[in-house]
Amino acid sequence: MSEDELEKLKREKMKKAQRGNNQSREMQEQQARKRLKKIASQILTDEARSRLGNIRVANPDMASTIELRLVQLHKMGSINGKITDDQLKNMLKKLQENKDSTNIKY
After folding, report:
1. Reduced to 3 states, what is the DSSP secondary structure of residue 104?
2. Where are the alpha helices (DSSP H) in 1-106?
3. Cβ neighbour number for residue 22 with a 10 Å cutoff
4. Contact 77, 43 (CB under 8 A)
5. Of 57, 73, 39, 55, nearest to 31 (Cα)?
6. Which of 15, 38, 45, 57 has the highest CB neighbour number within 10 Å of its CB?
7. Residue 104: pLDDT above 70?
8. pLDDT in tens, 38-92
9. Do 14 and 51 touch, CB atoms closer than 8 A?
């Protein structure tokens, strides 16, 4: 085998390995998202869950941020019972206020 053929085989193996790593990383991210959704659905009322679903359609990043925050609060023990729609609205307002206050004006 020539050096060119060996190099070509090495590149092909590297590409396969990278594809495998990307796929496993994507699977891990999907599993993490599923766990977040499961926990969030357990601590939200039906109305609040519906609102979060609507937010997900309009702004997936915002929905993920909210889910992460809910899970953090749940793990810290700050959530007693289920989050109602009104409580979720208040959380959204606070997130929006924080977002507005971080804007840089020229």
Report:
1. coil
2. 3-43, 46-58, 60-76, 85-101
3. 10
4. no
5. 39
6. 45
7. no
8. 887 788 999 999 999 999 899 888 888 888 888 888 888 888 888 999 999 998 8
9. no
> Is the pLDDT assigned to residue 7 strictly greater than 70?
yes
Q: What angle, 0 to 180 degrees and rounded to 10, lies between the N-to-C axes of helices 46-58 and 3-43?
A: 140
Crossing angle of the two packed helices 46-58 and 60-76, in degrees rounded to 10:
140
pTM: 0.63
Distance of CA 9 to CAs 32, 75, 86, Å? 35, 49, 60
Map tokens 């998202």 to a residue: 33
Cα separation, 90 vs 77, in Å, equals 19
Q: Where are the domains of the chain?
A: 3-99
Number of Cα atoms under 13 Å in the Cβ half of residue 9: 6
- Other beta carbons within 10 angstroms of residue 25's beta carbon come to 10
